């Protein structure tokens, strides 16, 4: 893995695990609160910000699963050791998932301002916490 791999791996692991655990907890609470919202009688409209935040957490979870699958890949077709423009394929793919998750977090902040439902505060709290973690890890990556 080397020092370059460690330089990327530490912020990526912190970002991914914080999104999975903190984001997953906030997501669970927000889904439960939105599901039991008494304003919606009969047909329930799922808030768009809740869907975008769900996509953000799921993107990080999917990225973690893909990286774990690459780590377990051994043999002649070891795709994890290949390089794209001089960067390890694992790092490129994980960066893609982290970028998708970050874009979804930004979109969630924008969309959540226009909506009102019972779980909105929990979702906004989770979004802000995860944005702070993402930005700090990005600074860590570029400063190291």
Please, could you describe this protein's structure?
The protein is mainly α and 144 residues long. It has one domain. Helix content is 74%, strand content 3%. It contains four helices and two strands; from the N terminus they run ααββαα. Strands 1-2 form a two-stranded antiparallel sheet. Helix 1 runs antiparallel to helix 2 and helix 1 runs antiparallel to helix 4.
Low-confidence stretches: none
Number of strands: 2
Q: How many separate structural domains? A: 1
Task: Supply the helix-strand structural class.
Answer: mainly alpha
Please state the oligomeric state of the protein chains shown: single chain
Radius of gyration: 17 Å
Residue share in β-strands = under 5%
* Large-scale geometry: elongated
Count of helical stretches: 4
Give the SSE string: HHEEHH
Any descriptors?
144 residues, mainly alpha, two-stranded antiparallel sheet, 74% helix, 4 helices
Please outline what is shown here.
The protein is mainly alpha-helical and 144 residues long. Helix content is 74%, strand content 3%. The protein has helices spanning 2-35, 48-71, 89-112, 120-143; strands at residues 83-84, 87-88.
């Amino acid at each position: 893995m080397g020092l370059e791999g460690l330089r990327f791996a530490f912020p990526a692991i912190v970002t991914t695990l914080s999104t999975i655990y903190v984001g997953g907890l906030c997501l669970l609470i927000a889904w439960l609160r939105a599901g039991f919202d008494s304003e919606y009688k009969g047909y329930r409209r799922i808030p768009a910000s809740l869907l975008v935040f769900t996509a953000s957490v799921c993107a990080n979870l999917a990225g973690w699963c893909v990286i774990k699958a690459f780590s377990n890949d051994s043999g002649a077709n070891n795709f994890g050791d290949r390089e794209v423009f001089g960067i390890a394929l694992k790092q490129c793919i994980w960066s893609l998932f982290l970028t998708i998750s970050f874009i979804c977090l930004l979109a969630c902040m924008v969309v959540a301002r226009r909506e009102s439902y019972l779980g909105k505060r929990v979702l906004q709290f989770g979004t802000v916490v995860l944005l702070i973690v993402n930005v700090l890890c990005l600074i860590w990556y570029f400063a190291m």
